[in-house]
Amino acid sequence: MKQRIQIDQLEPNGYKAMFGLEHYIRNSGLDKGWLELIKIRASQINKCAFCINMHTTDALNNGETPQRIFQLAAWEESSLFSDEEKLILKITEEVTSIQEQGLSEETYQSASETFNDNTLAQIIMAVTIINAWNRIAVSTHKPFN
Predict the structure, then answer these.
(1) pTM
(2) Quick check: 114 and 87 in contact, CB under 8 A?
């Protein structure tokens, strides 16, 4: 890919603000395994090689199994994910693909019955944050090697 601007170098204050959001979500109490599943799945949908590389590595380093990562793109067909994780992945897909329908009423209702309001808010924020990172990395061809 052709070299493009690197926002982290040109606009470090913008990156600093993004890292503030990242710090918030990492310290929100949201399960770290859930957070990595959100990051990987959104990055797969957005075709962000930089973030897929980063977050699969982070997930493996934090104890996630390769088998679950291999099956993440087909989570609906997999028996390796809990009902809560499948719901989180459904939220991730619907919010990431917001142009299709956004977070459906059915998914929202199921989530509000499964998670408390704060956890649901944290899940939505986590999806939002990784989507912002994906858009930065994809639009600037952020190198990962």
Answers:
(1) 0.94
(2) yes
pLDDT given at position 145: 61
Q: Residue 73: is its pLDDT beyond 80?
A: yes
3-state secondary structure the chain: CCCCCCHHHHCHHHHHHHHHHHHHHHCCCCCHHHHHHHHHHHHHHCCCHHHHHHHHHHHHHCCCCHHHHHHHHHHHHCCCCCHHHHHHHHHHHHHHCCCCCCCCHHHHHHHHHHCCHHHHHHHHHHHHHHHHHHHHHHHHCCCCC
Longest distance between any two alpha carbons in the chain, whole Å: 47
Is pLDDT of 103 > 80? Answer: yes
Cα separation, 135 vs 138, in Å, equals: 5
Q: Which two tokens stand for residue 48?
A: 């962000």
At residue 142, the pLDDT reads 85
Res 3: pLDDT: 81
